[in-house]
Write a structure and sequence with these properties.
Elements lengths: L24 E3 L6 E3 L4 E14 L17 E14 L5 E12 L21 E26 L8 E15 L21 H4 L14 E10 L2 E9 L16 E13 L2 E17 L1 H11 L9 E18 L2 E10 L13 E11 L4 E14 L2 H8 L18 E13 L2 E11 L10 E11 L1
């Protein structure tokens, strides 16, 4: 588990100084060498700037949530301060104040698999500050091999046993704990597309920045881990504000198995979610619009209901420095999407390669593709003029799957600072064959300390 800057909505600024407190060393009891004492205090920081541009592309028509088909470029800037203390053995308290500024392309609209996970569903011309994460974590050792824990963002250095319980409570991202992947989960250093860094159909609980109040429990036993969480949904779908009374909520569950395949490490995760809240039936919204002769309005037909889904997430190292990943997911498609994006079925796969093979061990190159599809009900909803969280061209005459190819090169300028180059090719943005294809070029600057 790693509660760093790995969720879809990241935070930040333009520059920030940092103090890093390294753990002292103590002799291991068995005399086998030095072992780290538990780190009691740490302060880390990161900053990230992403600029994306797309040239003009074909569009037969456009609607309220369409990707602008002219030449367009936008930039997001963010930074995070990670402050952690250890109140007692196994305990950690973290707070992440963040500064954000900028906009995603077209105000983060127009593509279900949106091209930048650094872009929020809200934007601002001027920098603003939010406390995105504050949480308490308790680790309870249950025995087994003693493992060294490297100090990192939202992780205090020390040791833990292979078998353990981990409890986390507070405000953090669901995908800080669930649906993680070594090769595709970090917009600071690897892929940028929403439906590559997380499973596109995973409609996880979150505010408009990607965070929620909640609690999670993890049980590590041998090669297996079980996870369960309860999180707060927004007060209304796709909102800035969470339900203060937890009257609308989500259950999340995950089983992970770690393995060795031909001597190389890998992992497989099955993740499921169930949301309970006031959400619209897509067919109900269409029927109401047909009967009254007005626009398709999800707000008018919202009632307390459930929406669930399940996904597969796998990673496998092939040789040192070369790995592959796979994601596939399905979610119930008869309700409006509550938090994430308008994807009901998705399959993604990719490869990641470090630069050690050409003498640049801190560089990384990645290539991946994803196919996103809506349900039959969502296609009909969009065709009737309905608007989703990110998409809605006013009509949908010729529908087709969103097909996205992304490649990046992450260049280590020097150890703390990386320069990334990203390219994405998107066909049928918003599931619309009458728009696109779109080429999106990106430049990313990231530093962490």
């Amino acid at each position: 588990m790693h509660l760093g800057s790995t969720s879809r909505a990241r935070a930040g600024l333009l520059s920030l100084s940092v103090l890093a407190l390294t753990p002292t060393m103590a002799k291991a009891q068995d005399g086998g060498g030095d072992a780290p004492t538990a780190q009691s205090l740490a302060i880390h920081a990161q900053f990230t700037s992403v600029t994306q541009y797309h040239p003009s592309f074909h569009a037969a028509y456009k609607g309220p949530n369409s990707l602008n088909n002219g030449n367009r470029g936008d930039t997001t800037n963010d930074a995070t301060l990670f402050v952690g203390v250890r109140p007692w053995k196994g305990g950690e308290v973290w707070i992440n104040p963040e500064v954000d500024q900028g906009f995603g392309l077209s105000g983060t609209l127009g593509v279900a698999g949106f091209p930048s996970g650094e872009a929020y569903k809200v934007g601002a011309n001027s920098p603003y500050v939010r406390i995105q994460r504050w949480f308490f974590r308790q680790t309870v050792d249950l025995g087994g091999e003693v493992q060294k824990v490297e100090a990192d963002q939202n992780v205090l250095g020390g040791t833990q046993t292979a078998n353990r319980l981990v409890f986390t409570i507070g405000k953090f991202g669901v995908v800080d704990i669930f649906d993680t992947n070594k090769y595709a989960h970090d917009t600071k250093n690897d892929f940028l597309n929403w439906s590559l860094i997380d499973t596109g159909s995973y409609d996880y609980a979150a505010d408009a920045w990607g965070y929620s109040y909640g609690a999670a429990a993890e049980w590590y036993q041998g090669d297996w881990t079980g996870r369960f969480g309860l999180f707060d949904l927004s007060n209304v779908p796709n909102s800035k504000d969470l339900d203060s009374r937890l009257g609308q909520f989500q259950y999340d569950a995950e089983v992970e198995h770690r393995h060795q395949l031909f001597g190389q490490p890998g992992a497989v995760r099955i993740t499921a979610f169930l949301s309970r809240g006031r959400m619209a039936s897509l067919e109900g919204a269409i029927r109401r619009a047909t009967a009254l002769g007005g626009p398709v309005d999800v707000v008018a037909v919202r009632q307390y209901a459930s929406r669930g889904g399940v996904s597969l997430n796998a990673e496998q190292q092939l040789v040192e420095g070369l790995g592959v990943f796979l994601r596939a997911g399905w979610a119930e498609g008869d309700k409006e999407t509550y938090e994430f994006t308008d994807v009901d079925h998705t399959v993604a796969a990719g490869v990641s390669l470090t630069g050690s093979r050409w003498g640049r061990g801190d560089d990384t190159i990645g290539l991946a593709g994803v196919v996103n599809e809506p349900s039959k009900q969502r296609k009909e909803f969009l065709a009737a003029g309905g608007l989703g969280i990110l998409i809605g061209d006013g009509k949908l005459i010729n529908s087709g799957p969103e097909e996205i190819l992304e490649t990046y090169y992450n260049l280590a300028l020097f150890k703390p600072v990386h320069l990334g180059f990203d390219y994405q090719y998107i066909t049928n943005p918003g599931y619309n064959r009458d728009r696109g294809p779109v080429s999106v070029f990106g430049v990313r600057v990231h530093g962490q300390f």
